[in-house]
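Example 3.2
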Amino acid sequence: MSMKYVIKYKSAGEVVTTNETENDFYSLDITENADRYTVVLNPKRDFELVDFYAETDYEFVKNDWFFAGGYQSWTKSREFQCGHIQRGVTKLSKIHPLATHAAKLFGDQYIVDYSEVPGEFHSHCYTYIRNGKKVKLFGSLSEKTGFTYFKVKMNDNYFSIHKDVLGKLVTEPYTVFDVVYYEGGYEEVFDKYFAKFDMPETRKGLMTGYTSWYNYFQKIDEKIILRDLEGLNCAKNEVNIFQIDDGYETFVGDWLDHCEKFPNGMKYIAEKVHAKGYKAGIWIAPFSCQRVSRTAKEHPDWLIKDEKGKPQIGCIGWGGAYTLDIYNDEARDYIKHFFDVILNDWNYDMVKLDFLYSQCISPRNGKCRGEIMYDGMQLLRECVGDKLLLGCGIPMSAAIGVCDACRISCDVDLTYTGKIYNHIHVNNEMLSAQSAINNSIFRRHLNGRVFMNDPDVFFLRNHNLKFNWEQKHLLARINNLFGNVLFVSDNAGEFNKKQVEYLKKYFKKTGEVVKSAEYLDDEIIRIEIDDNGKDKVLEFNLKRGELIRDN
């Protein structure tokens, strides 16, 4: 492809825009062959980048589908055709700057603009263009140097590759793009792409069991946790992990402070879990500090600051939370310390690490967002060591080679059809059972190749939930078919015989292999399956949660 370059950088306080491949500031080394395209920027002086992309013509044809891979774990990811629209945040959020920031905070809208024009889409780290069974995949191998994303205008035959370089101070040769191209079947192209990554062997296996969040949220205590631990006895042979979620800590950020709700401490809970023969898991938001936390109050110098010098809001949950700066030595030591206690003193086997995107909301210290996120994930992997790391709320490319398991969907909601925030489309990360199912299907290529896919929980309980039985069955069926982290938040001790049977069923993989999956229209999804040599079809209405066919 013949590429045109657009490069923006700062000179004497002004932003310069140029198409030059060489000038007084830099030269570009460009290498292109049949299946790989690289661009290395060689600086002639130190300078700061603002934007960098390469654009070209691309002929889209009838029945082409473009895969729009979302920025982070929760971001909606699916295939689009030329008449579809990829939506950003709701227009209602633009009534006030604080509302706009809150809506944009979780996603990529500080990185890329959403035109909301039919046929204009973008995809992070990699993308593919599918026509029938034929797939053309474009994938980045240079995510350590910054986030890469692909943009298309299908109705204008336009294709571009972008690097989020904002804030990058270039002092030495800098790999902007390292993109591979493969053509073939769906499984074939992803096998080739992920084989190119410099990453350790992916942990294989299945994580089955319990997490406390989707029944009690933060309203947990020692009594509830131990009761639900006993409740899993009905499916004990199918369970291998029991995870305590948010609510055991005094405040987010004060992970080691004693909480009265757990009078015997969290080490005691881990011992009780181990006595059942399960691995013990625990939730942490390792970069986050609640505004009212002791950590935030006593160590304001540990926090990331905004352009006004005030602590940056990294999450709107818990009444607002700040973010620990991994480049502050004392903050870094604090992070290492609480991991050491939780993993080696309390003896937890798995940590679910959440809201990780907060580390790289803004560029700083001469690094762009992707470089910061890479540094953050390397720190977390160092802290976790050989124990299991389940990532959540993480830019997807930063999870590659670091996470043993990773959420690939938004949070499921307790109402299948969604609440008001779903219908006004606040952003692409809002909790939604439909979006979770969608992501489980269209991020299936990650499972086993990169990490164990966590599609979030399924439900079998009868209370504190607005799902009918068919919707419960559909969610569980999809999770089992596409995921390798299979959790419930139910107290299984309340289950009847039928619920126990289904719990055991959905904790076991079937051996089915997905051959293809696609939207037939805006609501109907069709999945073709090889069930140990027998062809099957799973077809359902995503909006209503109604099965059409499963045979």
